[in-house]
Design brief:
The complex is a heterodimer of chains A (about 450) and B (about 190). With about 450 residues, chain A is mostly beta strands. Chain A is built from 4 helices and 32 strands. In chain A, the strands form 7 sheets. In chain A, strands 1, 3, 4, 5, 6, 7 and 8 form a 7-stranded mixed β-sheet that branches. Chain A has a 5-stranded antiparallel β-sheet with strand order 2-31-30-29-28, with no helix packed on it. Helix content of chain B is about 60%, strand content about 15%. Classes of the chains: A mainly beta (about 450), B alpha+beta (about 190). Chains A and B meet through loops of A and helix 4 and strand 3 of B.
Chain lengths: ~450, ~190
């Protein structure tokens, strides 16, 4: 297990405003090295914020005998760049590699136009590693955040992501979501007619792990709130059924299935219930299954299509897609009363809505001028804005801190994943190194 | 069909004889009653012979029916097995009625026949919505067949949404091939 211990943290409201008032464009590409596992993800940043904040992540000190398998500072560097809000200094331009405060010459870093500096060291423990890190404001010549994280022998990448999370939070005020995972579906009949895979990778695309392989479609992965299990739909019996699988042990359970649709599983915020779509009573309706009592409760009742359930933050409402008004739109049902209200009115195709962690923004798929884009509706102001300009964008999934939306789109005729910040300013593509990938689901925080 | 009609004819003749026997009791004399009874007996014997002939005929016709079923199976194979739809629509277009009527005729004449209607959608729109749309298309075909006399028990609808396209292209020609219901016989 990984422990995070922030020692000093200073309120960073000042830095927030500094981050958000940049006005020039910056395009940069980040390439990462990968293992040979197929369907691994490759991240290419296509658009960052205007004038990203210059930072420097100095190689972390390591005095152990053998070289480490991971370059921790490089992982932190890549995480921060991937947020689109930072531009990091190349190592070749650094004048020194300090790993403690007494060795930092702020004048040098100021000369290199670095605003923030991150240094650190890695210590060997009997059980694994400890990473100490420190973040400095170069102009003020002061430490903003100091902390240490520790974990097992195979946790170096996870420890690096924890450092990124802490640094990101110190600089933006928003909890980082670098130490999270992405579940996704890979499928490519050109590779193999029986090629459908459910995979889980780290949020930076590394450590892709196969969860399920099938000759029949796999759909709609949904994370449990503790990020330990996935619910998904598999057609492996030639009929759709919902399965719940522990991603560590591989143990899985088939949810009782019915004639017709068994689809769109979605975990409740308390982790005890699974919303789903069944058509056993005639057509697609939303149901809620209590995972403990196995009590199944029908939530919607309409001859139109009701599908794609997604919970409100407090677990008292379920958002869903329905064509009860003639075209697909997002509705919300209050579970206690059964009261249904429509949430979207702009456009003739709005579907697969889900809320950000704070409940303020509704992220959805919206059709405009015959093209399908990812859009966000501000539920306080009622305004909808498009986050993407590409076509056939679908399956949006919001990071647990609400900063980014991962989705699937088309690029050069094949399905790839892509991500966009909730304000539309930062974009990156995440193609697979092989085949097509789709239906990304961003995990909750891992602890 | 012909076999069924013949047994109906036999049944109604028996009924006529029985009614004649009933009406003869009470109001008529014993003599006339016995004459009528003898006539009824002769008629009943004739009927038995007719039934025997009918049984033989039925056996012969069963053979014919079996041959007809085989022919029908071949005939269904000649029918279109894929019904296409417009975007976000589940209305059955007129051009597919002939094929569906052919399947309906076969299915209602062959109660042991079973079909799966696989509903599909094109890649536009969201995946789970397309699962529901594929099912709605399957249900539309199912309802059409049931109205034509097919037992609802011989039909199952399974939707694959946009998960199993026949054409992997991303243009309107590919999409129109993917918006479909496939009729699959799992038992003839």
């Amino acid at each position: 297990m990984i422990r995070v211990q922030p020692i000093i943290k200073i309120a960073q409201i000042l830095f927030n405003t500094r981050l958000s008032t940049r006005l020039l464009s910056a395009i940069f590409t980040l390439s990462l090295s990968f293992s040979s596992w197929s369907s691994n993800l490759v991240i290419e940043i296509t658009q960052g914020v205007d004038n990203p904040v210059p930072i420097a992540v100095v190689p972390f000190n390591w005095v152990g005998g053998t070289a480490l398998t991971e370059d921790v500072a490089q992982i932190v560097d890549a995480d921060l760049e991937r947020s689109g809000q930072f531009k990091s200094l190349k190592r070749s331009l650094m004048l020194s590699f300090p790993y403690q405060k007494s060795d930092v010459y702020f004048r040098d870093w100021n000369y290199l136009a670095t605003e923030y500096l991150i240094i650190g060291k890695i210590l060997a423990l009997d059980t694994g590693y400890q990473v100490d890190y420190q973040l400095f404001d170069v102009q003020r010549q002061e430490s903003i955040s100091v902390g240490q994280v520790s974990g097992g022998h195979n946790d170096l990448r996870a420890l690096a992501h924890s450092v990124s999370d802490a640094v990101y939070e110190a600089l933006t005020g928003l909890k980082g979501a670098f130490r999270t995972r992405i579940a996704y579906v890979a499928a490519d009949k050109k590779i193999n007619p029986n090629y459908y895979k459910l995979l889980v990778a780290d949020a930076d695309g590394h450590n892709a792990k196969e969860i399920l392989k099938s000759g029949q479609p796999i759909m709609s992965p949904s994370w449990s709130r503790d990020a330990k299990k996935l619910a998904y739909v598999s057609f492996e019996t030639n009929r759709p059924a919902i399965y719940v699988q522990d991603i560590t042990t591989g143990q899985r359970e088939r949810i009782k299935s019915f004639k017709g649709i068994n689809g769109a599983p979605s975990w409740s915020p308390d982790g005890n219930k699974l919303a789903m779509v069944l058509s056993k009573d005639g057509n697609a309706e939303i149901y809620v299954l209590d995972m403990k009592s196995k009590n199944l409760k029908r939530v919607t009742k309409h001859y139109g299509i009701d599908t794609e359930p997604s919970w409100s933050v407090d677990g008292k409402h379920i958002l869903f897609t329905s064509d009860r008004g003639g075209k697909p739109q997002i509705y919300q049902v209050t579970l206690d009363s059964g009261w249904v209200e429509r949430l979207t009115f702009e456009g003739d195709y709005n579907a697969r809505g889900s809320l950000t962690h704070d409940g303020r923004f509704l992220v959805l798929v919206s059709r405009h001028d015959q093209q399908f884009h990812i859009a966000v509706q501000d539920l306080q102001r009622g305004t909808m804005s498009l986050l993407t300009q590409t076509n056939l964008d679908e399956s949006p999934s919001v990071a647990p801190n609400g900063s980014m939306v991962i989705y699937s789109t088309q690029d050069g005729g094949r399905d790839i994943l892509a991500a966009v910040s909730i304000d539309g300013k930062v974009k990156f593509k995440i193609p697979a190194n092989e085949g097509v990938v789709r239906e990304p689901a961003w995990s909750p925080y891992l602890d | 069909m012909q076999v069924g009609n013949l047994s109906k004819v036999i049944a109604s003749s028996v009924l006529v004889v029985f009614l004649a026997a009933c009406s003869s009791t009470g109001a008529t004399t014993d003599a006339t009653a016995s004459t009528q009874a003898a006539a009824a007996l002769a008629e009943a014997q004739a009927l038995e012979e007719a039934q025997a002939t009918a049984a033989a005929q039925q056996a012969a016709e069963n053979k014919v029916a079996q041959a007809a079923a085989e022919a029908a199976q071949k005939a269904t194979q000649a029918l279109a097995h894929i019904i296409y739809f417009d975007f976000d629509q589940s209305t059955i277009k007129a051009e597919f009625r002939t094929a569906l009527n052919g399947h309906a005729a076969y299915l209602s004449q062959n109660p042991s026949a079973r079909i799966v209607l696989e509903g599909h959608a094109d890649e536009r729109g969201t995946r789970e919505y397309n699962i529901a749309l594929g099912e709605r298309r399957g249900n539309a075909v199912s309802r059409y067949l049931v109205v034509q006399g097919v037992s609802v028990d011989s039909i199952e609808v399974v939707s694959f949404g946009e998960e199993r396209p026949v054409n992997a292209g991303h243009d309107s020609a590919s999409w129109s091939e993917n918006r479909r219901v496939e009729i699959r016989y799992i038992n003839y």
